[in-house]
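Before the break, one more example. Copy the sequence into your notebook; we will annotate it together after we see the structure.
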Amino acid sequence: MFLLARLYLYTNIYFHRTVRRIDLSMHEIFADSIAHILPGNPLDHLDEYLSLTDWSLLETADGWRRSPPGTDERRLGDAWGDITTRQLRWRLAYETTARARGDVDGLEARIVAALPTDRRDTRFVVDVASATVASYNPMAEDGLVAIYDPLLERVEHSRTAELVARLPQYNQLIRVFSNDEGALGALREAARAVLNG
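Here is what the structure looks like once it is written out:
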């Protein structure tokens, strides 16, 4: 039950599509934001970096929203405002779950090749979130974690193997996000053709 709960935590919380959309949005502005707050090498400004927290970053970004239009600070402040109010530009075009390790090398290029010619310059991101859910004990010959049965007062190895056999050993969420709403349908079809074809 614990391993199944762990899998659900990854697929429904840590790897939730909205969390990944927020991550994509933050990725676009985080480096610029830090460069404005604390320019230079962190090793030269350790005391200032110690006081940098999630809260101080968001408070500073909120202040940037009052900067004059067209400035870098205003752009960053507005972008952070969009994140905190969940006005996210990135949209989910396609999602699938793989129960075994799949070949994701070159996936973006394969999707571009499957897109209609007039959509091949669409900006999109292939997001692969992977979780190994089965427990593993490198000290055991079979790699399984032994379970102690208090009623029988002994360690059960076969019971562990039986339980683990029912669980997916590996779980991979493959998603395609785009900030071009007009291309979502074409991306969905291209991704489906590549990943399920």
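The two ends are 34 Å apart (CA to CA). Residues 1-89 form one domain. Try to locate both features in your own notes.
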